Amino acid sequence: MAAVYTPSSAFLSTPPQKVYSFASPKTPFLGFPVAAAKPSIQARALTLSKPTPNQIHCQGGAVVPKEQKWMFDESNINGPDIWNKTWYPKAADHVNTEKTWYVVDATDKILGRLASTIAIHIRGKNLATYTPSVDMGAFVIVVNAEKVAVSGKKRTQKLYRRHSGKPGGMKVETFDQLQQRIPERIIEHAVRGMLPKGRVIYFKGENGP
């Protein structure tokens, strides 16, 4: 709070049309008689100085630079928060009945690359509206799962293990053995490892539902 001294009294500089004067016994100060009384509680509560030409006041006295004034042209006190524009999907944005369905032919497709592509579309990471905490992805159906391909010697060297939970219940089989027994489980196992929760339906052969 600034004070302006005159021969008769001292005035506090406040916003326009609010000037406070104090009439009390005067004491000499630098050769001029000035009021020695303390300002009232109401006057001491005024701590905002007069705004400069390159500043504006908004939202209860917050000072905003002049070059940012354009951000407040369309807003008002009861309007939306212009600082919070983060979009979050609503319930209508991820309705299961309106999601996309993909049918993927696994014939001669490399297992790892096929599984990663399926996982991306199931999670919806290919969409601009992707949100990690919301199910924004699509549904994927894989056909011809028994014709998926692997590189190198993985057909005989890649192992799949399962356990019955009993002592000595470990079962181990190769890629070829599992492909002959349950071919759709190979892709299911690969995709499930890339997902929080899987939503893929696998079918042997070309005929789906």
TrEMBL record:
Pfam families (UniProt xref): Ribosomal_L13
A molecular function (GO) term: structural constituent of ribosome
Domain of life of the organism encoding this protein: Eukaryota
InterPro entries listed in its UniProt record: Ribosomal_uL13 (IPR005822), Ribosomal_uL13_bac-type (IPR005823), Ribosomal_uL13_sf (IPR036899)
UniProt key word Signal: no
Keyword Ribonucleoprotein set for record: yes
GO terms (BP aspect): translation
Keywords noted in UniProt: Ribonucleoprotein, Ribosomal protein
GO cellular component: ribonucleoprotein complex; ribosome
Protein family: Belongs to the universal ribosomal protein uL13 family.
PANTHER family reported for this sequence: LARGE RIBOSOMAL SUBUNIT PROTEIN UL13M, RIBOSOMAL PROTEIN L13
Protein name, as recorded: 50S ribosomal protein L13, chloroplastic-like isoform X3
